[in-house]
Amino acid sequence: MTEILIQNADTVLTMDDDRRVLHGADVLIRGGEIAAVGQGLQTGGEVVSGRGCVLTPGLVNTHHHLYQNLTRAVPGAQDALLFGWLQRLYPIWARFTPDEMFVSAQLGLAELALSGCTLSSDHLYLYPNGSRLEDTIHAAREIGLRFHPTRGAMSIGESDGGLPPDSLVENESAILDDMIRVVDGFHDASEGSMCRVGLAPCSPFSVSRELMRDAALLARDKGVMLHTHLAENDEDIAYSQEKFGCRPGQYAEELGWTGDDVWHAHCVKLDAQEIDLFSRTRTGVAHCPCSNCRLGSGIAPVRAMRDAGVPVGLGVDGSASNDMATLSAEARQAMLLQRVANGADAMSAYEALEIATRGGADVLGRPDCGRLEPGKRADVAIWDTTGVASSGSWDPAALLLAGPIQVKHLFVEGRQIVRNGEVTTLDLPRLLERHRSLARKLIED
To answer: Residues 8, 38: contact at Cβ < 8 Å?
Structure first.
């Protein structure tokens, strides 16, 4: 079995149960697992120097829309609020084919990998022109990132009072049938799985009450997780109160959308009662600070959520609403926003990094990830702290205060995905040219 020894790292942030921080330490990878963490470890396999570096678990992205990588900084959407932003972009997305889906996913995952991400979820809720969830699954398989795609859906189009054009909505019976197909075909529940599938109706304002309930029942029957957008901004709250006569948290609870097998994106506008509900039920939250700022949605009450015991992870959100997918920068933004809202001592760099690693893994139901300790998966990010970004830092391990936003090396399941700042598993220049060609076609059309 292949062994790799990451030797003599300046600092190892384990994120284990004791939150140990080790200095001058080694991490031994055997196959796809962490075999040992400590000083003076030996191997007959490959040795990777950790000198001048900080080691962390791979970062975990709990919310994304990878297909949006072809629609960044679109005029007319750059300064719009959520609902207007959607109305500008839906007609463009309606022209996508499986090729756009695959190329967008590959480039988005490459961007995540360079920012230290080893495990990413994705929320794909529209399927124009023959697109299918496996377009993204195949993209993740080729690059080698651990993947948690979710089969999203929209069923209420413009003619029924919804936001999306009718061409992008689906029949609810067909949605449920395809959910069964992708779970049966691609979900792997085993420890160390490289692909788990979730079910994810897009939002309470784009599907019916019946589909929300049916998706929850199906997910429990299949043993998979549930995901959707919730309480994202003031418009979202107003819609819920007008259409459902209650706040989003109450609506979610009524339809079976709480529990440790559920995580909701954004939750910017959760009130104290909803935070208590999520705490009691262990319902997870994907916090997307940059997107929330970009769309003017507000600052999510992450400090209150964490203090109450709500599981919180980070998400970059879609590339059309961020418009970047740099997870390390997302962690820094999460820390800074909580300080803006609650004071300079509201969140440390270490806590924000914990949310980005162990926190996200727990939200996605992956206690086998997000930690550097024996028996956990060999997902390791190695950060070079000898460069300009860390120069003058008295605490190089405080990466989010003064440190690089791109990794030097990245391992997923013991396989090196990034080496010396370059993705090893695909031809990135060729992919970029293909991506530019597709983007030009969309703009010209």
So the answer is: no
